[in-house]
Amino acid sequence: MHDHIDHASAVSTPTRRRTTQRSPQRRAIATRDGIASAAAEHFNAVGYAGARITDILATAGDSKGAMYHHFPSKESLAQYLVQGWGTVLVDTIADVTAADEPALRQIVSVQRRLAEIITHDHVARAGLILSLERAVDETAKVYSAWTSAVTVIVEQAIRAGQLDGTAEHSRLGETLCAGFVGAVHVAASLGEPETISRRVDDLLMLWLGSDPATAPATPAAAR
């Protein structure tokens, strides 16, 4: 007999009211995320300039009104994706640097984890590519923050004696991030996002002189 209890009716009134109030917010978030995901697909496929709002909305299955509630322009939509990529960067670097690993291994871990995310997350991938689009981020703030964060780890590796203080190594953060972006662009242009991790590993291997999956305490060139 208990199986026929109406569980919805059994919920207390305050709880049901809170659930009802949260529901529109959940729908709004789902709409926003759906539009962002559709936009990422188009930005990845045809670039920022080539992407059209009408095509994005057709993919998302939403109206212009729904989009403009969250994003007043294509530029603001692209900036939202760049901000999302910025969050991925911050979280990934924080996780890696919190681990008790030599700084050199942290450099490798940051780039490999980001490559794995970019390979499987088309929204993050769009954010990365758009972060260097002048119409979206004129001063490339997010990209600059990424290179600066990697450079800080490089400097720690130099102080720890894991790298020497050559000019080449002082620019390593910029070099690795630029190479990463190049790998992503090549993979995207060829329609092969699944190769991003492999391409980034190849880049790291050229620098390390060994498999990045088993990164040594110092690169081969310094040993």
Molecular structure report:
The chain is an all-alpha fold. It contains 11 helices and no strands. The model is unreliable at 1-21 (pLDDT under 50).
Using brief descriptors, characterize the structure shown.
elongated; mainly alpha; 11 helices; Tetracycline Repressor, domain 2; 223 residues
How would a crystallographer describe the biggest sheet? none
Give the class-level CATH name of the largest domain. Mainly Alpha
| Helix content estimate | over 70%
CATH homologous superfamily name of the largest domain?
A: Tetracycline Repressor, domain 2
Instruction: List unreliable stretches of 5+ residues.
Output: 1-21
Provide mean pLDDT, rounded: 85
H/E topology pattern: HHHHHHHHHHH
* Radius of gyration, taken over Cα atoms and rounded to an integer in Å: 22 Å
Structure, briefly:
With 223 residues, the chain is mainly alpha-helical. The chain has helices at residues 7-10, 13-50, 53-60, 64-70, 74-98, 103-120, 122-130, 141-159, 167-170, 172-189, 196-208.
Helices and strands, with pairings:
Blueprint: H1 7-10, H2 13-50, H3 53-60, H4 64-70, H5 74-98, H6 103-120, H7 122-130, H8 141-159, H9 167-170, H10 172-189, H11 196-208
Helix pairs in contact: 2-3, 2-5, 2-7, 5-6, 5-7, 5-8, 6-7, 6-8, 6-11, 8-10, 10-11
